[in-house]
Design goal:
Layout (H helix, E strand, L loop, with lengths): L10 H12 L2 H13 L6 H28 L5 H8 L5 H4 L2 H29 L8 H11 L11 H19 L1 H29 L13 H9 L9 H15 L5 H6 L9 H18 L4 H19 L2 H13 L5 H33 L5 H15 L1 H5 L5 H28 L2 H9 L9 H31 L5 H27 L1 H6 L2
Helix pairs in contact: 1-9, 1-13, 1-16, 2-11, 2-13, 2-14, 2-15, 3-4, 3-11, 3-13, 3-19, 3-21, 6-8, 6-16, 6-19, 6-22, 7-15, 8-9, 8-16, 8-17, 9-16, 10-14, 14-15, 15-16, 16-17, 19-20, 19-21, 19-22
Length: about 525
């Protein structure tokens, strides 16, 4: 007997779940580093251009596509694309909307587990008395199994990974209302409270060292927000801004369509979709921009903060912040709050990224909910061992490039062409406006037809031109590391091939529901 398709229980639950999908580690770790490295306040000009011309129109497209697909019983993009474009290849192009979010989750769950581990380490004092950033980097590397300075191997990290995977599978098993919506209803308010308390603490910090009055939070905020307009002529800054918008709003991945497929026919996608996007932007720009960089500037000074930020987001979040918390009263509690909000941000995103495959198994292959969740979680668990064991060799970075950079731009371009041009602009616009409490400005129809696809196409070409050849050739990669990177590519090819097989198996169901 076919299970009835699930629906969201409440509108606030939908908004919080959609916001949880978008709010992730990138809001608190990636965004401040990207802003710092790309002209400070000047970075926000191309950032907001990408928000207006990419994120907002794509978000409306994905919400409308998902709602339309859900009405016909399709919760993943193979079925949705087949509805929009009556061509045999459409359902295979739609595989990207399952492959990309699943591919991200293959390594994202492991990163998420670091946050859970460090929240526990904060409470138990495991890293206390490691009071130098260099030593804390060593602590992080030891936890990752890259050395044995503090841990005897990967055992501790693997235990926290198992806990994280179990939590993800459990939430998925509980379903849309009982799992994902409940997680969002509890997790997102906790995240907002923790982040707001930490921001308040940062803003009242002043200058920690009276002998260095220039090392203060206000100057740290100024470092992010004072614009270096000379950077606006640098194409790299525009690429970085657009990449951050894709990463933070979750457009171009395929997960939004799945969440939107559980909407009712007359549910609003204009206001509700815009609300979730603006919620994410508040978390990223206001909260995320007021934490890691300003506090690192205040404690370490401009030059050392730059060195930490240029070393990567992980160093900022997992090496600098634990050292800072040890210098503050009740630092263990504040460290717990920091890493807990990162974990909540991570898990609300990872369950959303896994849901498209679960929805496909249920909607198209007619699997039971339990079987769909078990197979999805099992494949993700096995695949995650490649980035876990090949971390030092760059296997994680290899996967991230293909699914989190190149693949997202490609899929965003495809969905824009299919939904707007092949499905016809007037049909797409009507679908977006249907049920809207406040209609979307007509200006955005012009944006959808012309500006968004050209913007994405230019972005895709620039990304391919700047990064593609080096990644393809694995420039500067040793033979040993290249073996792991080839293994990561092989893993992605295997996952994509399996999804092609599943779509082929479901072609009759997809075709009959067009």
């Amino acid at each position: 007997m076919t299970e009835k398709r699930e629906e969201w229980g409440t509108r606030i639950g939908l908004v919080l779940a959609m916001a949880g999908n978008a709010v992730g580690l990138g809001n608190f770790l990636r965004f401040p580093v990207q802003a710092t490295q790309n002209g400070g306040g000047a970075f926000m000009i191309p950032y907001f251009c990408a928000l207006i011309f990419l994120a907002v129109p794509l978000m409306w497209c994905e919400w409308a596509m998902g709602r339309l697909g859900g009405e016909k019983g399709h919760g993943a993009t193979p079925g949705i694309f087949a509805m929009l474009w009556k061509h045999p290849i459409a359902k295979y192009l739609g595989i990207l909307g399952m492959f990309l979010p699943f591919g991200v989750t293959v390594y994202y769950c492991y990163l998420e587990s670091w946050c859970l581990a460090f929240s526990w380490f904060s409470l138990t004092g495991r890293y206390h008395e490691v009071t130098e950033v260099a030593k804390m980097k060593d602590f992080l590397h030891s936890y990752q199994g890259l050395n044995t300075s503090f841990f005897g191997g990967l055992g501790t990290a693997y235990c926290f990974f198992l806990l994280t995977m179990t939590a993800n599978v459990y939430i998925l098993y509980k379903g849309i209302q009982g799992g994902i919506e409940k997680l969002a209803n509890w997790g997102m308010p906790i995240l907002f409270v923790f982040a707001s308390l930490l921001v308040l603490r940062v803003l009242t910090l002043g200058a920690p060292d009276p002998s260095l009055p220039d090392n203060n939070v206000i100057n740290g905020l100024g470092f992010i927000w004072n614009p270096d307009f000379s950077q606006l002529g640098n194409a790299k800054v525009w690429l970085a801004a657009a990449g951050q918008i894709f990463f933070t709003t979750s457009v171009g991945f395929g997960a939004i369509q799945t969440y939107a497929s559980y909407l009712k026919r007359k549910d609003d996608v204009v206001v509700t979709g815009l609300s979730t996007t603006m919620t994410n932007e508040f978390v990223e720009v206001v909260l995320g921009g007021s934490l890691a960089i300003p506090i690192a500037f205040a404690f370490f000074g401009r030059d050392m903060m730059l060195d930490i930020a240029n070393g990567g987001s992980f160093n900022l979040g997992f090496a600098a912040m634990p050292v800072v918390f040890q210098k503050l009263p009740l630092g263990a509690i504040q460290g717990f709050m920091w890493f807990s909000l990162l974990f909540i941000a991570g898990i609300t995103s990872s369950v959303a990224l896994l849901q498209p495959v679960v929805a496909f198994f249920k909607d198209e292959l007619r699997w039971s909910h339990g079987k769909a969740v078990a197979v999805t979680g099992g494949i993700c668990f096995v695949a995650a061992h490649v980035p876990i064991l090949g971390l030092k060799a760059g296997a994680l970075d290899e996967i991230d490039f293909w699914v989190g950079t190149f693949g997202v731009a490609l899929f965003a371009l495809l969905e824009t062409i299919i939904f707007v041009w092949i499905y016809k602009p007037e049909n797409a616009w009507r679908e977006i406006q249907d049920g809207a409490q406040v209609r979307a400005p007509g200006f955005f129809l012009f944006v959808l037809k012309y500006i968004t696809p050209v913007y994405i196409g230019a972005l895709l070409i620039a990304w391919t031109w700047q990064q593609g050849p080096a990644v393809l050739r694995m420039e500067g990669v040793s033979a040993a590391d290249a073996a792991w990177r080839w293994g990561a590519r092989g893993l992605l090819v295997s996952i994509f091939a399996a999804m092609c097989y599943w779509v082929h198996q479901a072609k009759d169901r997809i075709e009959e529901a067009k």
